Amino acid sequence: RTQHTTGKKASTMPRKRKKHNNIKGKVSQRCGPKGAAQIVEGVYISGEYFARDEGRLRSIGVASVVACGCRAHHPDQFRYLEIRLSDKASSDASPHLNRAADFIAQSLCHGNVLVHCKAGISRSATMIAAYLLKYHHEDLAQTVDDALAVIRRSRPCVNPRPEFIEALSSFSDQISWLDERCQVNSKNGGDKDRDAARGSLMNASRQEDH
């Protein structure tokens, strides 16, 4: 190691080595568990530390990945949905919720799905909550609190930003409104009508993205 002189008397006391989180070629995860947790059958959550390791992904049967605010580490090996969302108060999660929910649901036929952000605490949990609200609305997640409770059973550290929770609340209201509308308008084929109506949310979110 290169030594530099400063003209001051050298201290004889041992100095603690500083920890560096920006080592080239490595991904730093300063908080949150480094492993993955299964939320419901086929759907996992983690931070980026786990998501960058191809071997770990394959060990839990992952075929598709939702990367929230992080790059796709293995685009040639897995199906990816990259969500460009920063973890800050000014970020709007609304345009991404329906797209993430649909991607998760549609990807389960290929294998397990991992949803991750930097720490696996806020953004990734928000996208999984959207999936639960849309596709498990009747059995697991009738409200945002229900959805977060399901996620926290497996990953207690989950804590989405207040702004993301507000976006989820609006999304949940849309889902509930569509369900009620379909039930009123159709006694037969309600499930088909409800799925078609929910599909309109996907089109709306795509239009907001472009």
Automatic annotation (TrEMBL):
InterPro entries, A to Z: Dual-sp_phosphatase_cat-dom, Prot-tyrosine_phosphatase-like, Tyr_Pase_AS, Tyr_Pase_cat, Tyr_Pase_dom, TYR_PHOSPHATASE_DUAL_dom
CDD domains: DSP
GO terms for MF: protein serine/threonine phosphatase activity; protein tyrosine phosphatase activity
Keyword field contains Repressor: no
SMART domains according to UniProt: DSPc, PTPc_motif
GO annotation, biological process: signal transduction
Pfam families given in the database record: DSPc
Chain positions covered by the region annotation Disordered: 1-28, 186-210
Alphabetically ordered keywords of this record: Hydrolase, Protein phosphatase
Domain Tyrosine specific protein phosphatases: 113-156
Residue stretches of biased makeup (Basic residues): 14-23
Annotated catalysed reactions: O-phospho-L-seryl-[protein] + H2O = L-seryl-[protein] + phosphate; O-phospho-L-threonyl-[protein] + H2O = L-threonyl-[protein] + phosphate
Tyrosine-protein phosphatase domain ranges (all copies): 35-177
One GO location term (cellular component): cytosol
Homology family: Belongs to the protein-tyrosine phosphatase family. Non-receptor class dual specificity subfamily.
Protein name: Protein-tyrosine-phosphatase
Lineage, uppermost ranks: Eukaryota, Sar, Stramenopiles, Ochrophyta, Bacillariophyta
